[in-house]
Design goal:
By secondary structure, this protein is an alpha+beta fold. It has 4 helices and 8 strands.
Length: 176
């Protein structure tokens, strides 16, 4: 039997396997991702949910959308951008949920406050206040437009400070 024709090794799953997980274990993308989530949780010393608990978390999702940013999530980075890969989030209060990798990364910086930020708002990385997205300037990185992590006020303040420091250094070099 060819690899492409093998059935997923997870009991009760009728999907065709896409990933060889070991000598005789073949998983479909869904069970490969849920298995990897469990392995990573255990490796990082966090609570490792049962396969049934992971299935229940996926069942809570609507159209495989991240409950925070509403982006459609994928099961593997070969199927979409890394930031859209579904990941297991351990909240500070012990709650588990499935969110996209991008929101998971934001959670690691902000903590559970990420759930309190309304759609259309961002948290400034400098002054730590939540402001409407229009108060954040756009930056061009790698040919794509991204919203800056600093609000316009903080970005202008840092620009003024940097120019003052550069001017002071220039003056000190001229004295010597």
């Amino acid at each position: 039997m060819k690899h492409a024709e093998r059935q997923c090794s997870r009991k009760g799953c009728q999907n065709i396997s896409a990933v060889n997980m070991g000598s005789s274990t073949f998983y479909c993308r869904y069970h490969q991702r849920s298995s990897w989530m469990r392995v990573e949780a255990k490796r990082r010393g966090k609570y490792c949910p049962t396969p049934e608990e992971v299935d229940a978390l996926f069942a809570e999702l609507i159209d495989m959308r991240c409950p925070i940013c509403m982006r459609v999530m994928v099961l593997h980075s070969s199927l979409g951008a890394m930031s859209t890969v579904a990941s297991l989030q351990h909240d500070n209060d012990g709650t588990l949920r499935i969110i996209c990798h991008g929101c998971n990364a934001a959670h690691s910086k902000l903590g559970d406050i990420i759930y309190d930020i309304p759609k259309g708002y961002r948290r400034c990385s400098i002054c730590k206040t939540i402001k409407i997205t229009t108060e954040f300037p756009s930056t061009k990185t790698g040919g794509s437009k991204r919203i800056d992590s600093r609000c316009s006020h903080c970005k202008n303040e840092s620009r003024i400070m940097r120019r003052a420091q550069q001017k002071l250094i220039k003056q000190q070099l001229q004295i010597v």
